[in-house]
Amino acid sequence: MRVWLPVIVLGILVVGTVAYIVGARAGAVPLAAQPGTPLGEYISGIKRTPGTWKDPSINVGANEANLGTPDVTIDVDVMRPVFVPSQIKVKQGQVVKLRLHGKDNGLADTPEIQQSVGLKEFSGHGFQILGPYDVWITGIRKGDTKEITFKADVAGEFPFECVVFCSTAHYAMQGKLIVEPQ
To answer: Does position 52 have pLDDT exceeding 60, yes or no?
Structure first.
C-alpha cells in the first residue's frame, strides 16, 4: 500500500490541475472573482449568506426588491440536534422568507472543547436546502437570526440539513422542504 500512496496522491493532483485548467478555459470564474459584482448585489440563482458568527454575512442572496414581498415568512429555530419545525410546507410559486433563529452555539457550548483553535469562529450551525434552490447559510449562533428569501418555483420534496458540524448528533439535524404543486 505504501508504494501506491504517492501514485494516488500524484493522480489526484493531476486530475485537480486538469479540472482547474479546463474550468478556467471555459470561463468558469469563482463568484468572488467576477469583476463588476459588488458584494451584497443580487446574483440570479444564488442564495447564499456565508460568514462566521462575528462577521456580518456577505449576503449575495435574493433580495425582496427582486422577488417582491414574501408570500410567507417561516420562523425556524436552529438548535442541536433539530430544526423546529423540521418540515416546511409552501406552495409552488410563493416567495418564501426563512428566518433562522440560533438557539445554541453548537460545539462552542461544549465545555471540553471550548478552547479549540478556530472553534469560536466556525461553530454554531448552518442551513442548506438540497436540490434546485441553492440555499446555504452558515454562522447561525445563539441569539442570531439569519434571513433568506427565495422563490419556491420547483415543486417536490427537498431535504435540508445543518452544514456546520455542531455536535455528535449533527447528522440528525435534518428536515424537509415540501413545495406543493399549484
So the answer is: no
